[in-house]
């Protein structure tokens, strides 16, 4: 049975391509029963299963290591800054507009999109927690004035305006000539007072513990954080040197995560190649 399990794990992608139907997709029984599987002798099947199990365990362990490193960053944040939801360490409080500049991106307008000054831009879905998904980038026109107004600079914090309110990532010139649309806020911190890394985790903690509930509305509404409300958010601002300690710690942990993530990717490639070799 474990051998059949691994076969079906790989074959499920084929079944997805064969799914039919409108809103609700389904798979015909014949698509499954017509599947062809190469049956080795029991001894070889057991050897294949044991090999795949070992690689799978390595994948799970590496994924767990990354999760534990994320938890370590959270723990360090709390150790340094306390419970920011109740400001347990009594840090001074500023409104966001007093310690940064912010603005929403350019509004989409298909009728005015000529393609003559077309550049990639970030949309809501491109901004994930602490990273950008750049696998799919849309483009629209940005003239000279737009490019000045909606430019992205190293250290800019991009924050989602709707959906998962507060989800954010720090721009580090991942690509050149990239801009942002109205579904996102661009925040530029006064780095003499507040660092974008601290502010990003400030948003993460408030998102995780419903810290925006009173601002964006109840469950019956679609959550939004408009520019006016963003600017007036009250931010606990620790001593800048304590913030720098946190940033240094985060950077070191991120280096470890990169090493583990690269190893995880290589292990995943190995697993996929073995699945291809054994099951086609």
Summarize the structure in words:
It is a single chain. The chain folds into 2 domains: 2-78 and 257-279, no CATH class; 99-237, DNA methylase specificity domains (Adenine-n6-DNA-methyltransferase TaqI, Chain A, domain 2), CATH 3.90.220. It has 9 helices and 11 strands. It has helices at 2-18, 29-33, 42-81, 96-99, 144-149, 196-208, 213-216, 227-231, 240-279; strands spanning 93-95, 100-104, 118-122, 127-128, 131-132, 138-141, 157-160, 168-170, 179-180, 184-189, 234-236. A 4-stranded antiparallel beta sheet has the order 2-10-7-8. It has a 3-stranded mixed beta sheet with strand order 6-3-9, with no helix packed on it. The chain is globular, with a radius of gyration of 24 Å.
- In what range is the share of β-strand residues? 5-15%
Low-confidence stretches: none
Secondary-structure class:
alpha+beta
What's the structural domain tally? 2
Task: Identify the CATH architecture of the largest domain.
Answer: Alpha-Beta Complex
**Average of the residue pLDDT scores:** 88
How do the SSEs run, as a string of H and E? HHHEHEEEEEHEEEEHHHEH
Strand segment count:
11
Molecular shape: globular
Cα-based radius of gyration, to the nearest Å: 24 Å
Biggest sheet character: 4 strands, antiparallel
Fill in the keyword field for this structure.
globular; 2 domains; 4-stranded antiparallel beta sheet; Adenine-n6-DNA-methyltransferase TaqI, Chain A, domain 2; 9 helices; alpha+beta; 3-stranded mixed beta sheet; 280 residues
């Amino acid at each position: 049975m474990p051998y059949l399990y691994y076969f079906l794990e790989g074959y499920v992608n084929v079944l997805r391509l064969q799914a039919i139907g409108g809103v609700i997709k389904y798979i015909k029984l014949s698509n499954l029963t017509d599947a062809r599987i190469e049956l080795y002798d029991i001894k070889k099947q057991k050897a294949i299963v044991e090999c795949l199990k070992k690689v799978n365990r390595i994948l799970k362990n590496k994924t767990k290591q990354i999760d534990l490193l994320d938890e370590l960053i959270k723990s360090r944040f709390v150790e340094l800054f306390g419970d920011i939801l109740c400001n347990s360490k009594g840090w001074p409080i500023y409104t966001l507009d007093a310690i940064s500049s912010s603005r929403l991106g350019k509004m989409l307008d298909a009728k005015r999109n000529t393609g003559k000054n077309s550049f990639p831009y970030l949309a809501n879905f491109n901004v994930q927690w602490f990273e950008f998904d750049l696998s799919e980038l849309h483009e629209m026109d940005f003239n000279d004035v737009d490019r000045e107004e909606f430019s992205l600079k190293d250290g800019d914090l991009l924050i989602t305006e709707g959906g998962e309110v507060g989800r954010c990532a720090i721009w580090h010139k991942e690509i050149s000539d990239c801009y942002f649309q109205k579904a996102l806020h661009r925040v530029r911190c006064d780095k003499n007072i507040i660092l974008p890394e601290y502010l990003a985790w400030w948003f993460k903690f408030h998102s995780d513990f419903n810290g925006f509930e009173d601002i964006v509305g109840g469950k019956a509404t679609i959550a939004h954080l408009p520019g006016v409300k963003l600017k007036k958010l009250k931010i606990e601002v620790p001593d800048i040197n304590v913030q720098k300690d946190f940033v240094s710690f985060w950077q070191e942990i991120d280096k470890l995560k990169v090493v583990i993530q690269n190893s995880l990717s290589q292990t995943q490639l190995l697993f996929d190649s073995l699945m291809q070799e054994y099951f086609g």
